[in-house]
Inverse folding.
């Protein structure tokens, strides 16, 4: 018994000691950050080839710790390793972590590590939600921004919009209608149609993913208020009788606030886009405000078919995204939010982090992880993949789908025009972190009130 | 001379003190209480202090809205939560909903679990083994599984964004919305999920109960209902209270059921609000409000705990296992009656317990979630081609199997530690249950159960950032958090078992000078083996299907539940369902293996 008692006592003492021993510390990490800043500044001037050489020397057979809100980056890892191996064979044995987290959790992980001065934490990250990035990553000076030289030198890239913070790509949420069965005649040709009493919009809750709040905040900007006013007064608006008096107090922003309230009241919220899509596909005549790429993974069956889906901006019978005419919806056709690539300040592998970011954002091989689907558009248009006839192909009697640009048009909703069409013709709202941060508190409290009192 | 006398007197005092100490620690129960008291104090105080500080501090993302600098002390969150335009929607309504759902869940679980436990242990009903085995399935399965099954089965064209569900397709009956969404369905599903708590705890006592008391009453011609209310119910009262404590606290912080069966009609509960508010930990824009909700949940739990504590302290000890002869009398349901009861119960159990399992299997074989129109496909299991995002069929995706290995390892380690710690705590508390120390440790051991999982995860993640060696070992961190969270299962189970055990059993051995560890291993443990093993199995099962608790600390792919999130994000619900099925099957296999090796399991524990 004595032995057991002694053992327990020692265990307790050890536990106390272990718990109370705070071994973390910030000494030296600021120096690492300064060094990394210099490395990134230099990396921005290097060609991909020079950068890869430095990265290969740095990482060897080691581990690059990467985390993302999208897990697709993992599909680019093998190609990246092969690329580095050309410079140093050891790199064939390197590892890149494939951790994923939703947008709230990822900032806790990254910012938590930075505040604690962890020097062997994540090297780089793929994040979303401009609001949190601006507040937590940029305004605090926590995250480091790297812009690849190839991207910067490309005349087609939009430096104002996408260089700081550096964005890999746009993801799009768009309006869609389930025209199956009893919903065959439902048309969404004006964004105000979704605010008509009784309309059903399947979408993610702003409380579950902040980008769903960001786009509503973007609508309060002057440009979008004018767009909403114009759409409201258009004959296609099915909700023309909406009383705007309660919103007069918002001045020029009244259309935005009226729209936000109408949208939120009719929204059926889900915790993720996949669940929203599944419910939307079963709701004939219902609307969807869902990530465009999500519909690509719907499997064809006798009951559920992508043929029933109409992308509001494209219309019912689009055959080729390349020759797509004007948008079929008044107002805006979607919301493009971004995926940003950032280097962590205390990264142990700054060269490799920059090289991986360079590889993902400026090479077709690196971007192929996202290019396989509709609805993702790289910030460097030259690496985009043509998906304008993505809905062409053959649907077998066993519902097996074989995509083929030269075959007949089967799924109109998949003929995805280029990013430029969405921006110029479909008038999509594009995420602007700086604007969102400025207006967040005003609009957010309104959004919360509407949701709370639904 | 005077100095020498003082010195001697001091020495004497020290000697007395040391002797007192040695005597005190010579009692194993005291040593256990002190050691675990210190351990639990540290581990539970850390998150508690964090939560309280957070509730009064401005965080980075709240600074703008509050107009206050980061880190400043404030009552801003309290005002926002209790007295602002959004208070009703974000707090009062969800609070009312949570209380309603939790109370109903307690009632449902006690009715379901208690009735089945009584029928299995105290009647001559046939199919006991089958019913007993299958009845625990809803607890083994993740909560949302049952919720999803309920929704798929009952959803109809009468519901918000409804469609023809399984029942409507089969019978043409369109269920009303209240049956599909809202408080009734949420609490019923939670009640079914937690009914095994009641079944195990109440059944454990009913099974071991000495029938002499009831028989004595029968001889005295006391009516059956009076025997039930005056003898049976008081004896199972501790188990009922423990069930209420566990179910109410669990239901208050349950998130997945409320999301599935509440969100579509905007029926919010505190847990759904909390999950959103704490999703980004201290970097959330509502971190302060989330912390207040955590405190409220803890306070509600503490109130129930206190009620239970007072009851445990005051009540007479109803020993059901003594050194004297004991036997269980079986109520005769009648020749026909026993078959009718058994058939009805079997159908119900099959529907609620096997239904979701069948649904799981189907979902993993369907081309789209809930779409049976063209039959099934095995490609989600057997495809050697990449389906999406690097994932092949389940059999050919090593990440799934590695993550499963991680889940098993973590669950086994957590269960071993939590089970053993809980057992010792239960033993010590029962031995010293009148002492303040024992009551304090008992309360401390239960406190982690009241802390919302996501809150614990975020807090321990932040703590680990300051302990670099711990941060570098996420598995160890998961074990610490898992053990802390699951000790309550084991300690309640152990305490219940110990309270039934008459002191005379151990006393006999003590007279023979048998060492404590031998008494534990040879006498106490074997007698109450089934209850003690429940204390190992419950943490194992809970840990296997846990996500929120490990969300910030387990790297993606380390355990199966975090990998499932990636499968969902990738758009592979069939793989996610398949992974869930594997989880459930693995748990069932473990249950079966333990049953074979030790002769005990969750269901066997009460004698199916």
């Amino acid at each position: 018994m004595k032995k057991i008692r002694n053992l327990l006592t020692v265990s307790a003492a050890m536990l106390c000691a272990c718990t109370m021993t705070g071994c973390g510390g910030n000494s030296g990490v600021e120096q690492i950050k300064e060094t990394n800043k210099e490395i990134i500044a230099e990396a921005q001037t290097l060609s991909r080839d020079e950068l890869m050489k430095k990265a290969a020397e740095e990482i060897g057979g080691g581990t690059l710790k990467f985390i993302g809100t999208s897990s697709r980056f993992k599909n680019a890892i093998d190609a990246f390793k092969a690329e580095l191996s050309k410079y140093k064979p050891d790199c064939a044995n390197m590892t890149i972590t494939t951790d994923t987290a939703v947008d709230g959790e990822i900032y806790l992980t990254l910012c938590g590590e930075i505040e604690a001065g962890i020097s062997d934490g994540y090297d780089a990250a793929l994040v979303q939600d401009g609001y949190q990035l601006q507040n937590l990553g940029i305004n605090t000076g926590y995250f480091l921004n790297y812009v690849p030289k190839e991207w910067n030198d490309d005349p087609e890239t939009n430096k104002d919009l996408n260089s700081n913070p550096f964005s890999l790509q746009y993801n799009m949420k768009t309006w869609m209608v389930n025209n199956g069965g009893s919903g065959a005649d439902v048309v969404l040709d004006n964004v105000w149609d979704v605010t008509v009493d009784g309309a059903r919009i399947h979408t993610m809750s702003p409380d579950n993913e902040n980008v769903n709040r960001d786009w509503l905040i973007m609508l309060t900007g002057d440009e979008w208020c004018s767009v909403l006013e114009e759409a409201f007064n258009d004959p296609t608006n099915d909700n023309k009788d909406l009383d705007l008096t309660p919103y007069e107090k918002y001045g020029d922003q009244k259309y935005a606030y009226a729209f936000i309230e109408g949208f939120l009241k009719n929204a059926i919220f889900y915790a993720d886009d996949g669940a929203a899509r599944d419910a939307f596909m079963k709701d004939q005549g219902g609307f969807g405000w869902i990530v465009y790429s999500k519909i690509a993974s719907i499997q064809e069956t006798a009951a559920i078919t992508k043929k029933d889906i109409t992308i509001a901006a494209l219309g019912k019978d689009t055959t080729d995204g390349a020759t797509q005419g004007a948008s079929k919806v008044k107002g805006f056709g979607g919301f493009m939010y971004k995926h940003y690539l950032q280097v962590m300040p205390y990264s142990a592998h700054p060269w490799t982090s920059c090289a991986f970011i360079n590889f993902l954002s400026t090479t077709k091989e690196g971007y192929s992880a996202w290019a396989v689907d509709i609805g993702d558009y790289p910030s460097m248009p030259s690496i985009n993949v043509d998906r304008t006839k993505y809905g062409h192909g053959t649907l077998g009697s066993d519902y097996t789908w074989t995509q083929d640009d030269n075959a007949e048009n089967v799924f109109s909703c998949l003929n995805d025009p280029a990013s430029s069409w969405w921006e110029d013709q479909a008038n999509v709202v594009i995420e602007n972190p700086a604007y969102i941060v400025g207006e967040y508190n005003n609009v957010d409290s309104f959004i919360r009130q509407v949701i709370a009192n639904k | 001379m005077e100095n020498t006398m003082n010195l001697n007197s001091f020495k004497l005092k020290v000697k007395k003190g040391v002797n007192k100490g040695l005597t005190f620690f010579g009692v194993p129960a005291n040593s256990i209480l002190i050691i675990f008291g210190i351990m639990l104090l540290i581990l539970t105080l850390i998150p508690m202090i964090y939560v309280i500080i957070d509730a009064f501090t401005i965080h980075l993302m709240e600074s703008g809205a509050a107009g206050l600098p980061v880190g400043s002390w404030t009552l801003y969150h309290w005002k926002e939560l209790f007295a602002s335009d959004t208070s009703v929607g974000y707090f009062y309504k969800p609070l009312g909903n949570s209380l309603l759902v939790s109370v109903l869940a307690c009632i449902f679980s006690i009715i379901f679990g208690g009735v089945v436990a009584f029928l299995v242990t105290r009647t001559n009903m046939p199919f006991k083994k089958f019913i007993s085995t299958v009845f625990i399935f809803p607890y083994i399965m993740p909560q949302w599984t049952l919720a999803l099954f309920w929704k798929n089965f009952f959803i109809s064209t009468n519901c918000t964004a409804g469609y023809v569900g399984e029942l409507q397709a089969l019978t043409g009956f369109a269920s009303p919305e209240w049956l599909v969404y809202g408080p009734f369905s949420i609490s019923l599903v939670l009640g079914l999920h937690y009914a095994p708590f009641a079944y195990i705890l109440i059944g454990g006592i009913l099974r071991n109960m000495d029938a002499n008391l009831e028989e004595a009453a029968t001889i005295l011609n006391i009516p059956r209902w009076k025997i039930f209310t005056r003898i049976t119910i008081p004896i199972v009262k501790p188990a009922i209270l423990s069930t209420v404590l566990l179910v109410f606290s669990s239901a208050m912080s349950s998130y997945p059921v409320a999301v599935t069966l509440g969100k579509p009609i905007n029926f919010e509960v505190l847990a759904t609000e909390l999950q959103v508010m704490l999703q980004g930990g201290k970097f959330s824009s509502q971190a302060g409000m989330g912390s207040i909700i955590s405190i409220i949940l803890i306070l509600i739990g503490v109130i129930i705990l206190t009620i239970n504590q007072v009851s445990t302290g005051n009540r007479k000890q109803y020993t059901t296992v003594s050194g004297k002869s004991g036997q269980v009398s079986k109520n005769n349901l009648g020749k026909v009656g026993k078959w009718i009861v058994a058939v009805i119960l079997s159908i119900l159990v099959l529907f609620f317990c096997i239904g979701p399992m069948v649904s799981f299997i189907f979902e993993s074989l369907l081309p789209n979630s809930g779409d049976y129109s063209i039959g099934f496909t095995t490609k989600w299991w057997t495809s050697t081609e990449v389906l999406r995002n690097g994932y092949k069929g389940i059999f050919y995706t090593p990440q799934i199997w590695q993550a499963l290995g991680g889940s098993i390892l973590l669950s086994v380690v957590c269960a071993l530690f939590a089970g053993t710690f809980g057992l010792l705590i239960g033993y010590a508390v029962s031995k010293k249950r009148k002492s303040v120390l024992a009551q304090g440790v008992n309360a401390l051991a239960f406190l982690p159960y009241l802390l919302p999982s996501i809150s614990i995860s975020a807090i321990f993640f932040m703590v680990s950032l300051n302990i670099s060696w711990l941060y570098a070992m996420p598995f160890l961190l998961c074990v610490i958090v898992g053990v802390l969270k699951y000790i309550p299962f084991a300690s309640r189970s152990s305490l219940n078992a110990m309270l039934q055990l008459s002191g005379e059993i151990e006393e006999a051995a003590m007279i023979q000078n048998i060492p404590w560890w031998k008494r534990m291993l040879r006498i106490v443990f074997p007698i109450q083996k089934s209850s003690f093993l429940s204390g190992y199995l419950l943490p194992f099962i809970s840990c296997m299907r846990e996500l929120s608790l490990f969300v910030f600390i387990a790297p993606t792919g380390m355990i199966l539940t975090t990998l499932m999130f990636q499968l969902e994000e990738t758009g592979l619900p069939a793989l996610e369902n398949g992974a869930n099925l594997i989880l459930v099957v693995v748990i069932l296999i473990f249950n079966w293996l333990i049953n074979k090796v030790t002769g005990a399991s969750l269901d066997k524990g009460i004698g199916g």
User: Anything to note?
Assistant: Chain B touches chain A through 74 residues (CB under 8 Å). Residues 604-608 of chain B have pLDDT under 50 and may be disordered. Residues 27-56+382-608 of chain B form a domain with the MetI-like fold fold (CATH 1.10.3720.10).
